[in-house]
Fold this sequence. Notes:
The chain has about 400 residues and is α/β, with parallel strands linked by helices. It has four domains: about 1-60; about 70-135, no CATH class; about 145-325, P-loop containing nucleotide triphosphate hydrolases (Rossmann fold, 3-Layer(aba) Sandwich); about 330-410. The chain contains 16 helices and eleven strands. The protein has helices at about 20-60, 70-80, 100-110, 115-130, 145-155, 160-175, 195-205, 225, 240-245, 270-275, 280-285, 315, 330-350, 360, 370-385, 405-410, and strands at about 1-5, 15, 90-95, 135, 185-190, 210-215, 255, 285-290, 295, 300-305, 320-325. The chain has a five-stranded parallel sheet. A two-stranded antiparallel ribbon has the order 1-2. The N and C termini lie far apart (about 120 Å). The model is unreliable at about 405-410 (pLDDT under 50).
Amino acid sequence: xxxxxxxxxxxxxxxxxxxxxxxxxxxxxxxxxxxxxxxxxxxxxxxxxxxxxxxxxxxxxxxxxxxxxxxxxxxxxxxxxxxxxxxxxxxxxxxxxxxxxxxxxxxxxxxxxxxxxxxxxxxxxxxxxxxxxxxxxxxxxxxxxxxxxxxxxxxxxxxxxxxxxxxxxxxxxxxxxxxxxxxxxxxxxxxxxxxxxxxxxxxxxxxxxxxxxxxxxxxxxxxxxxxxxxxxxxxxxxxxxxxxxxxxxxxxxxxxxxxxxxxxxxxxxxxxxxxxxxxxxxxxxxxxxxxxxxxxxxxxxxxxxxxxxxxxxxxxxxxxxxxxxxxxxxxxxxxxxxxxxxxxxxxxxxxxxxxxxxxxxxxxxxxxxxxxxxxxxxxxxxxxxxxxxxxxxxxxxxxxxxxxxxxxxxx
Length: 411
């Protein structure tokens, strides 16, 4: 029996007696009708998505070409990895594999979000253009130039001599090796203002490698180094991808400044990526979140700077070669004062301005290099106001001098 009831406003109850076979037939027909309607809704939704995607393609351009078929993919691989097999390993290093690029290209072609698609399209075009190989900065190829650079480092930063010696040893090692130069991660710690960041910059110049400074003081997530996950509207690649994949060199210098000031209560630990980046084995297959692409960052040079190493996780410190940088004293302090004062005047680019006399610069030798630079800048400004192109003792800021030197300036 198959029963139907009228609404509550009706006083009739109708009972229809049907054969069992007919009852099941009606049930199946209702189910078929429901499936048909669901399919229509699904097809309609797909059509809307295709329309939106086509509009996006029309607005931002075609998707990056992803070769189809074995022959097309083989041709792309040969072109992208051209020169990899016969390269000089000490001069050029592959940071990307063609099959990984093909995977990301195919994935990019399916992106429906307009902003995300446009962002990935632009990045992948740059990746395709750059190819697999990057240069390897190695000063050992120019021994005379490297020797002068090392001498300048020793003269300008005598209190960093242990770090300079460490780097020189590893550069020398590359001369007897058939592989590219590799310098283990360095951690320099000491009081603020003694020139850690300035030394890192001069060291990068000596190595012939670009330097990227990343301060950890205000870092809140892991995205700083390895990118933002692609589903975020503000997604962008990290500093490592930017410098290596989109850059010129396979071994840029990363200055990880204020390492001890990284937030410890952050939901996403900003120091976490360093555990993988500082190990050559894991760094050779590092992943940037913005494109979900894997690349080789094993040759990157990391120089970390901090004031208090006890605030840095031991698991991270164990990956560095650590150096305590002392406050310069005696002859070192005098030497640094003269070098810093002379270079500060040079960098101000004031035409015909004479370098400071040693006796004047030495009066600042009790200060940190940072304080010396600030004092010389103020002194040069005073000299210019007084229509001079040289420094006098009276130009020095009295507030940065010790008591005896302040009396000399005032008189």
